[in-house]
Amino acid sequence: MKKKYKVLIISFSVLAVLFGALTWFYYWGTSFSGDLVWTPTRIPLPAKNLPALKDDPNSWPAWKGPNADDTSPIENINKDWSNGLPKVWEIAYLCKGPKSMSWSTPAIKGNRLIVPGRDEQNDILFCLDPETGHLLWYKKYEAPAAAHNYGQGHRATPTIDGDSVYTLSREGLVQCHAIFEGDLVWSYKLTDAGCESPEWGFSGSPLIYNNMVILHAGGNSLAVSLNKTNGSLIWKSSPGKGSYTSPTILQYHDRDYIVILYSDGVAFIDPNNGDFVHHISLDKDNTEMTCTTPVIKNDHIFVSALKGSQSILFQMIDEQPQIVWRSKAILAYHTNPFLIDNNIYSYSGMAMQNSMGKFVCISCDSGNVNWETKDLGIGTTIYADGHFICLDLKGNLFLVKPNPEKFELVTEFPAAIPDVKKRVWTKPVIAGDYLYLRHGNRLICYNIKSES
């Protein structure tokens, strides 16, 4: 064969491979038609008579649960899933198709469950009875979205505080609704404060601090503070590029800090005025694909970012965050790591980098790996009754006991969310005796309490 024909064949083959890879990447990043069975049902009629509000200490009222540590106070959970878990109820009307995809975790307080959804043109806020799944009320409002990669719906989880629920939309609309009947109390656009949405939309869940709603924004202000009663702007912080992480609170000695992990670093912000008190830069190769909330336990702060970046363990010493170590042993994506008994546990990696992923345990003292496993793939996790409840990208559920010596799988529940193939990114939550799993238009409630 002549040389010029060989060159042409090789060039064509290379171009074909590149085209195929780009096509796959685009499909993986924007298409949900093959991700789950889209059989949305009609939104039912809401309740005519609303029950009085009830509280429950075993609720899950915000992104990281009742104590901001992704831990449920439930005890005596079912630890044998060989026959699955008893399904209590299921709904399939939260979203109306791939374009309306919404990723928010439900927020539950007492006898109110709040979860965002979307149709073709509108964002929707649903309120359900958490024990029966019956619709109590819903509020629909027009919300044009600039793009629809990964869906136009909410990313941020609602925050319930007192008799109010606070939400943040993909396009940066902050709203406060009365939790009893859903009436809109106030709204505020983050873009009015000069904030700019990251590529896949505003995602950080609202944080309530005293009389304020704190939001990870980005652009002219890394964070903003709004009056939680009327929505007026209290302060704006220094600039910072927005990522997909949620703010959290560090209480150290007699001072509080808002801690935000973002693409350029870790900011420790004075909640009284928005000033940066400390700032630690991340690796120069870090990207804005930074999604996890900092983990805080006593005087330690652990942050982890994905894709060419690192994890960092800080310790507060004499009012200063000191770096204990940096490591690439854990590169967390959608999941928040856990610091338990001087060890850190977390999923690490993402599907596009490693289709198997891994679950890792490392030592707090050194940052060295105790063990890692690929048996769980990639997913999200919460902690309850001394165990991790892990949900992988395909909707399979696992119960794992923390053990620094070895990986210890207790039981598993395949296809806890059935008929999905990938991208189950919304983490499980527990409130009362119930486990809630959300993906797209569906929300499933299981009884996780042991009968014995």
Brief digest:
By secondary structure, the chain is mostly beta strands. It has 1 helix and 33 strands.
Task: Walk me through this protein's architecture.
Mean pLDDT is 90; it is low at 21-30. The protein has a domain at 1-30. The strands form 8 sheets. Strands 1-27-28-29-30 form a 5-stranded mixed beta sheet, with no helix packed on it. The longest helix is centred in the N-terminal third of the chain and has 28 residues, at 3-30. With 452 residues, the chain is mainly beta. It is built from 1 helix and 33 strands.
Draw up the topology in text.
Elements: H1 3-30, E1 71-72, E2 87-91, E3 107-109, E4 112-118, E5 122-128, E6 135-142, E7 159-161, E8 164-168, E9 173-178, E10 184-189, E11 207-209, E12 212-216, E13 223-227, E14 233-236, E15 248-252, E16 255-262, E17 265-269, E18 276-281, E19 295-297, E20 300-304, E21 311-317, E22 320-327, E23 338-340, E24 343-348, E25 358-363, E26 369-373, E27 379-384, E28 387-392, E29 397-400, E30 409-413, E31 429-431, E32 434-439, E33 442-447
Question: Which terms summarize this structure?
Answer:
single chain; 452 residues; mainly beta; 5-stranded mixed β-sheet; 4-stranded antiparallel β-sheet; 1 helix; 33 strands; 6% helix; globular
Low-confidence stretches: 21-30
Report the sheet-strand fraction.
35-45%
Q: Number of DSSP helices?
A: 1
| Major sheet description | 5 strands, mixed
The number of E-state strands comes to 33
Termini Cα gap: 76 Å
**Class from secondary-structure proportions:** mainly beta
Q: Report strand order across the widest sheet.
A: 1-27-28-29-30
Principal-axes shape call: globular
Whole-number mean pLDDT: 90
